[in-house]
UniProtKB/TrEMBL annotation:
Protein name (database record): ATP-grasp domain-containing protein
Signal sequence residues: none
GO cellular-component term (any): cytosol
One biological process term in Gene Ontology: regulation of cell shape
Family, similarity comment: Belongs to the D-alanine--D-alanine ligase family.
Amino acid sequence: MLGGGESNERDVSAASAAAVIEALRASGHNVTAIDPATWPAPARFSAQVGRNAPSEAEGARLAAAFRANLRDEAFWRAVDGEVIFLALHGGMGESGELKAELESRGLVGTGASAAVMARSWDKQDTVAELAAAQVRVPRRLRPETDENGELSWPEPTAGCIVKPALDGSSINVFKCATADEIAVAVKEIDGPVLVEELLPGPEFTVGVVGSRVLPPVLIEPGEGWFGYEQKYQAGRSREICPAPIDDVLRDELVELARRSVDVLGFGAESYARVDIMLDAAGRPCVLEVNSLPGLTGTSLLPLAARAAGWDFPRLCAEIVRLATA
């Protein structure tokens, strides 16, 4: 089990790892817990997700240690198991970098291929590839360059969302009403940025495990929107599965999720979660596709799996089975 890691989602990764370890051990698996950002120290995974991401300095320290371990053959001898379960959300774990190293060493890791992880991790690549395949996505806002070489953003007609192209768990996501607010938000984000029209919703998510599409989940975020705390602090949001929607919309969400993972190249060995929101006309739009969705006590994929008749140990066992099939 590889969990924790160096990304802004470190606490989420640790909580996923803790939950999966308990489930797999209860099913009779022998599981060794390793945090690639702190190895060779013993991994300490907690099921409790903290309220904040690591500081910038802490993230840099963890990233340096992670990269050093990837170059250390002693580290690879420690992780040489029959199956490497990846519970590393964000960063090197979800960008495809770690999976590429596993593939180059002939090691079996859970989830999608390195190439698919890389495509789905970069939200700019994801929405461009989906749009090219006629999958509906939110309209993007793009800046123009004025006579002084400065970027000038258009005024959004109904608000917009500014978010990092290379991050997850709704970290560093801004809701903006004016072009000036967009400019400020963009400066707050380190790295590539995605600016999209604000959709009224509601929001849904649809899990896909292998070839099986799970029942859609309706997300009711409570106060504000479905941000980091709403996702991982119990009681901050309400998620309903199966979603109380008519058959027409349910079928449309299921087909949209299936189409999205097919376009991005997810294979039978993988699992994913497709986040979808309705636009002002009530049409579903794909926000993003997660190649290593959360497996914590408040995560949405386990909720959808339960609605499909799988308890959490069964879901974890299925993820392992897909990797080895």
